[in-house]
Amino acid sequence: MITLLSGTNRPGSNTHLVTTLIERMYFQLGVPCQVLDLADLPPEIFLPSSYAEKPAAFAPFAEAILGSDGVVIVTPEYNGSFPGVLKYFIDMLPFPASFENRPVCFVGLAAGMWGALRSVEQLQHILGYRNAHLFPSRVFIPGVGQVLKEGQIQDAELVERLRKQAVGFTDFVRRLKA
């Protein structure tokens, strides 16, 4: 099972939309996957007491990561980095089991011309520290507001890059699992 992580809790985000489009690609490839949307995090995870004891409502989120064969992180760029909620989510997951030897793949999107390059590079450092297996083929989506129209990606070359990434990541996950 591949987990697609929508890396923001912003309502109505482009990140969520792109994540669901990627989900369709995996389904078309016949690859079991699930979307984990940070917009659905339980409010009690943000209480200071969560550092000592995770609320029961957070368990399905942790289990989704722990039970996945690989994780695709779809992240926007906010102020030159990835969203704080994504870092907090990573911090709340069990250490080291959540990412230790787990394949991880990245898709970045931004309004600007670099398509969340900085966000993805920062996440690569963090997940490298967590001993994840980083899939080298990243996809960046610059000018996301112009690329997404009527709920679809209008750039055929970009759609093909995302499809090739999904095929490659699926193979990467299978090889590492074997």
UniProtKB/TrEMBL annotation:
InterPro entries documented for this protein: Flavoprotein-like_sf (IPR029039), FMN_Rdtase-like_dom (IPR005025), NAD(P)H-dep_reductase (IPR050712)
A Pfam family the protein falls into: FMN_red
Residues of the NADPH-dependent FMN reductase-like domain: 2-141
UniProt superkingdom: Bacteria
One GO MF term attached to the UniProt entry: oxidoreductase activity
Name of the protein in question: NAD(P)H-dependent FMN reductase
Cellular component aspect of the GO annotation: cytosol
PANTHER family reported in the protein's UniProt record: CHROMATE REDUCTASE, NAD(P)H-DEPENDENT FMN REDUCTASE LOT6
